[in-house]
């Protein structure tokens, strides 16, 4: 009998352990808490661990290349890239402004110089020369030479023909006063006196080699007037060409 009760009790204990749902819902103390704590610590470690991307290994060097020389695909072997140039109106405008700045500056220098020359000629008390602008252009002058040496043959010819002035044309280049003007005689027709056929004037003063930016228009005209009557004994003095 006792043996039977013990068997029944063992069977009941076995059924209670295997069939009671509370046994499955609530595990023994200490087991779930320790497991959750371990899982929490592992999650924190995984969360705190930084994920850094490792750089790709450099490509292998080409066979036969000397030591220290990088392969063509390596970053060190690539040539440095030039910074991109600014395109559009702002980028292109800088070059245009630089290229046109020199021209504009040269025009300003020439304009200021010629304006001063006109003012100085207007103040001349002896009325040695007078200036008229051609088509109102500041860079193209007609200059009247009113006086030459009265003891010269040229002056006598001018008196006989009732010619009161010699008309010349002066054209000033873009780089004036650093380059000489081009000067020629318009009327009357002269020969000798450094005046060539067609009115061109052969004077070293008017060549790039003999020119100086310090020379004024008045000084050039006085030098030209002196050359017209220079060397009378050598028959180089200017004379009017009378129509036959």
Question: How would you characterize this protein structure?
Answer:
It contains 6 helices and 6 strands; from the N terminus they run H-H-H-H-E-E-H-E-E-E-H-E. It is an alpha+beta fold and 244 residues long. The chain has a domain at 103-240: Roll (Ubiquitin Conjugating Enzyme), CATH 3.10.110. Strands 1-2-3-4 form a 4-stranded antiparallel sheet. A two-stranded antiparallel sheet has the order 5-6. The longest helix has 35 residues, at 88-122. It starts with a helix and ends with a strand. 11% of the residues are buried. The model is unreliable at 83-101 (pLDDT under 50).
Lateral arrangement of strands in the main beta sheet: 1-2-3-4
- Low-pLDDT parts are 83-101
Proportion in β-strands = 5-15%
- The count of strands amounts to 6
Question: How is this fold's topology laid out?
Answer:
Blueprint: H1 2-19, H2 21-25, H3 31-48, H4 88-122, E1 129-134, E2 137-145, H5 153-160, E3 166-171, E4 182-187, E5 190-191, H6 217-228, E6 239-240
Antiparallel strand pairs: 1-2, 2-3, 3-4, 5-6
């Amino acid at each position: 009998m006792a043996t039977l009760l013990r068997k029944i009790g063992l069977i009941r204990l076995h059924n209670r352990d295997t069939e009671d749902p509370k046994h499955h819902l609530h595990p023994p103390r200490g087991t779930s808490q320790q497991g959750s704590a371990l899982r929490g610590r592992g999650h924190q470690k995984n969360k705190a661990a930084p994920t850094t991307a490792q750089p790709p290994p450099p490509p292998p060097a080409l066979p036969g290349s000397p030591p220290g020389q990088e392969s063509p695909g390596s970053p060190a072997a690539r040539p440095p890239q030039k910074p991109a140039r600014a395109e559009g109106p702002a980028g292109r405008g800088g070059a245009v402004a630089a290229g046109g700045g020199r021209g504009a500056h040269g025009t300003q220098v020439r304009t200021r110089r010629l304006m001063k020359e006109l003012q100085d000629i207007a103040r001349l008390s002896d009325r040695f020369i007078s200036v008229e602008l051609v088509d109102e252009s500041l860079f193209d002058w007609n200059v009247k030479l009113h006086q030459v040496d009265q003891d010269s043959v040229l002056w006598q010819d001018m008196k006989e023909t009732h010619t009161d002035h010699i008309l010349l044309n002066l054209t000033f280049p873009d780089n004036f006063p650093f380059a000489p003007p081009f000067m020629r005689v318009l009327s009357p027709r002269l020969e000798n006196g450094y005046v060539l056929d067609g009115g061109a004037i052969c004077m070293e003063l008017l060549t790039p080699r003999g020119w100086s930016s310090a020379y004024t228009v008045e000084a050039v005209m006085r030098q030209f007037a002196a050359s017209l009557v220079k060397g009378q004994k050598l028959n180089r003095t200017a004379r009017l060409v009378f129509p036959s």
